[in-house]
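Please, structure for the following, as tokens.
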Amino acid sequence: MLSKRFNLGWAVLLLASCSLDERALNSQPGPVDSGATGGSGATDGNGTGGEDGGASGERASGEGLVDGCADLDTDGVPDCDVTLVENATFASGVEHWTVLGDARLTWETENALGDLPSGSAKLSAKQIRASAYQCAPLDGYKLVIAYASALVDAGADSEDPPEAELEVTFFQGDDCSGASDGYFETPPSAATDAWVTIQAGNLSKDTTRSVSVALVGVSADATAEFDVYFDNVMLKAQDP
């Protein structure tokens, strides 16, 4: 498995140096010299960890909402008021998200919370790694935390299902251009029985001017089609 474990109690800067074009997000990321994040992996719908990213049960309608919006970090503030991401809840489509390679991103009625009318983004591909990303401005040294709701379609191979994760990359140029200031990923989730929360965080650098967040699906079988679902993408930046 490709899981990485992270600890919210500390964060150090990643030293990867590349651009979005040099390290395409739909390929395996290269090794980094050091890295840690503020994430603690996948949690179930009630904010508690499930074994191997699993969930303990279905979420009741409306649970996890604040003023009709997701609150995945449970700070009492609606995520839609602070997220850097446009179309984070996929209310009616997948606008503002760019698919890389041969992957497909489609809107589906599957919904992680009871914030109807809403839906989710389904990432589909027949390859080892697939992604769709969005770029946002980010100025300087910040603690950046990424959250999302994720659900995996086990497909024909329920013993080795695909995995869903987020990948966040910092850039020294505007519009996710120029050299990279590092990247981090959430621990992947292979949960198929219910929506789970995936999360991680890390520090940008003084030179950072933009950030990309990618919805990523990973499969062990490049010959089999896979589907992973994402909802409620929250990318939050705050002073360390």
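The chain has one domain: 61-238. The radius of gyration is 16 Å.
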